[in-house]
Amino acid sequence: MSGSEPIEEIYDAFAATYDASRDQFDLSDVLREFSAGLGDRPEQGRLLDLGCGAGEPVARDFASRGWQVTGVDVSRAMLALAARYVPQLTLIHADMREVDFPESSFDAITAVYSLFHVPREEHPALFARMRRWLVPGGRVLMTYATREYTGHDRFDGEKEFMGRSLFYSHATPDELREQLAGAGFRIVDARKRQIGGETFLWVTVERPSDSSVAGSGFTHNASTRSSSGVPES
């Protein structure tokens, strides 16, 4: 991932003070809605959490319901916290762009507060791999940066977060829609949510059971909702 300081070193540093801020954010509404949308997914399904950080709250939420959860993160220190907080996780120390799994390995994939640290020109290839990793009917939940966060329609640069300069990258929402449709996803929901004082676009997409169904556009429900979120991971 790009930036003047390696993202893994920044998140290693964040891990040292994680306990002090771990209760600052709440994603319960987001996770409840995403889980409800999985519908007929098995009660003990398989989740891939890309950028899992300390395993909270996403991995922990699914693991507590009996799911088999695989977490991927570039920060060894964050993964050490995840192993402590959610010991049943399968953890992989890697860049999300470098991992690979067999086709149809997962019932759901999450990329919460992580995708925007990957350069936007690399998103289409990652989306294509994510679709392949999902079972037909499986869904992805992702957080996407927009003008509301960076101040620009498209952005490749650094912004301050918790006193450190982090690399962020995003295209426009319309360009994101085209990338997701091009990867073969059906867009289920996309809305801007204000969480913890920050506004991001939260997107849910599905690998259609019939690939000809792919490519539906964003929903019109893009109203900002107030709640609280999780530290970026």
Outline:
The protein is an alpha/beta fold. The protein has 8 helices and 10 strands.
Write the layout of secondary structure elements.
Elements: H1 7-15, H2 18-21, H3 28-37, E1 46-50, H4 58-64, E2 68-73, H5 76-85, E3 90-93, E4 106-111, H6 123-133, E5 134-144, H7 147-150, E6 155-161, E7 164-170, H8 173-182, E8 186-195, E9 198-206, E10 226-227
Helix pairs in contact: 1-5
Keywords:
233 residues, alpha/beta, Rossmann fold, 8-stranded mixed sheet, two-stranded antiparallel ribbon
Characterization of the model:
It is built from eight helices and ten strands. It has 233 residues and is an alpha/beta fold. The protein has one domain: Vaccinia Virus protein VP39 (Rossmann fold), CATH 3.40.50.150. The protein has an eight-stranded mixed beta sheet. A two-stranded antiparallel sheet has the order 6-7. Helix 1 packs across helix 5. The longest helix has 11 residues, at 123-133. It is globular, with a radius of gyration of 16 Å. The two termini are 13 Å apart.
